[in-house]
Write a structure and sequence with these properties.
Elements (H helix, E strand, L loop, with lengths): L4 E10 L2 E10 L5 E5 L6 H8 L7 E6 L2 E2 L5 H7 E4 L11 H6 L14 H13 L15 H15 L3 E5 L7 H18 L2 E5 L3 H7 L2 E6 L2 E6 L1 H4 L2 H8 L3 E5 L6 E5 L13
Parallel strand pairs: 3-8, 3-9, 6-7, 7-8
Antiparallel strand pairs: 1-2, 1-4, 4-5, 9-10, 11-12
Helix pairs in contact: 4-5
């Protein structure tokens, strides 16, 4: 069965401060969704709510049609994986030990560790380029290395839905593209439904099957990159004057911020 994840009239917040308001979203099954928006618009809060890390003020999150807060924890963890912003590893844990935690939702109590599970962990380490770091302590790694280790943990969990909050944080441009290509491979070969928050609009446009623009805790626009990333939407959602062109590599929209200092002036006619 293919896992579905939707929200209905979802409102989320912290204390008396609402951050996400009356939001309806259905992740297209087996597709890649990217969520974009200005800082503090509710993107990360939305992901936390969808992963049931944050209870709803009102509305609900449905996993396969059932309220996610009514499901057993292990059942949710077998079907839904989350890479949060700035995760923290237990002190002294090695890379291999951390990635192995991704297998815990699938294991029965007191069951013996199997060669198949070792192979899954090795595949996740290899896919993210950190297999040589398997015996290193996570705290000793660079920010980019740690980010790839956390992605390896998410891959090892082998869920049908994967939520990632800024998975390219701390990564140089080469590793950003490698991680997004890896997630695309995962989507295409396993049919994993992926939703991720990205700040780079051009990467969001290039990798999204479905793009969601969030503004002040509500969905301002959603659909294909061409439908969402218009000059008007970029201006409203980001307060940014930009030119929207066609990416010559992907054929998707490409955002060129104008700014105040790099607009080419047109010479006066003679």
């Amino acid at each position: 069965m293919t896992t579905t994840l939707t929200t209905e009239s979802l409102t989320l917040g912290y204390g008396d401060r609402p951050v996400v308001t009356d939001l309806d979203l259905e992740l297209p099954t087996g597709r890649i969704t990217t969520i974009v928006g200005a800082n503090a618009c509710g993107k990360s809060t939305l992901l936390r709510g969808m992963a049931r890390l944050l209870p709803a003020t009102s509305g609900r999150v449905l996993l396969d049609g059932s309220d996610i807060h009514g499901l057993p924890t292990k059942q949710v963890a077998r079907r839904l994986g989350l890479l949060p912003q700035s995760p923290i590893a237990p002190e002294g844990i090695t890379v291999a030990e951390l990635v192995a935690q991704g297998r815990h939702p699938h294991r029965r109590a007191f069951a013996r560790w199997t060669n198949a599970e070792d192979a899954i962990i090795a595949d996740a380490l290899e896919a993210t380029g950190v297999i040589a770091l398997a015996d290193r302590v996570v705290d000793e790694l660079s920010g980019g290395q740690r980010q790839r280790v956390w992605i390896a943990l998410a891959l090892a969990q082998q869920t049908e839905v994967l939520l990632l909050d800024e998975p390219t944080t701390f990564l140089d441009v080469c590793h950003q593209v490698e991680v997004l290509d890896l997630l695309t491979d995962l989507n295409r070969t396993r049919g994993t439904t992926i939703a991720m928050v990205l700040h780079d609009l051009n990467l969001a446009a290039r990798y999204a099957d479905h793009l969601v623009a969030v503004h002040h805790g509500m969905i301002h626009a959603q659909g294909s990159a061409e439908q969402v990333l218009t000059q008007d939407t970029v201006k409203v959602v980001f307060g940014l004057d930009a030119q929207v062109m066609t990416d010559p590599t992907s054929g998707r929209p490409m955002i060129l911020p104008l700014g105040r200092h790099h607009v080419r002036s047109v010479p006066a006619s003679a």
